[in-house]
């Protein structure tokens, strides 16, 4: 029974500390982001986030091309084994 009391007390302390903490007001940036992403400027949506998105996109494409090249290399190596 004492284990349940301890658990209940821990719940109460956690609830009290969460509810009494000061809440910061965070500015809602969704309307500005919606404007940017819905703007018809001919740019693909996956690049509208800025330079970080462009870098992430190019890195992903480079890794994809390298991965496909490596897979093809391994397939050719497996299809034509070296003679001893």
Automatic annotation (TrEMBL):
The chain crosses the membrane at residues 55-76. Keywords: Acetylation, Membrane, Mitochondrion, Mitochondrion inner membrane, Oxidoreductase, Transit peptide, Transmembrane, Transmembrane helix. The keyword Disulfide bond does not apply. GO terms for molecular function: oxidoreductase activity. GO terms for biological process: mitochondrial electron transport, cytochrome c to oxygen; mitochondrial respirasome assembly; regulation of oxidative phosphorylation. InterPro entries: COX7a, Cyt_c_oxidase_su7a_sf, Cytc_oxidase_su7a_met. It comes from the Eukaryota. It holds the Pfam family COX7a. It is a single-pass membrane protein. Pathway: Energy metabolism; oxidative phosphorylation. GO terms for cellular component: mitochondrial inner membrane; respiratory chain complex IV. It is found in: Mitochondrion inner membrane. The keyword S-adenosyl-L-methionine does not apply. Belongs to the cytochrome c oxidase VIIa family. This is Cytochrome c oxidase subunit 7A2, mitochondrial. It comes from Pundamilia nyererei.
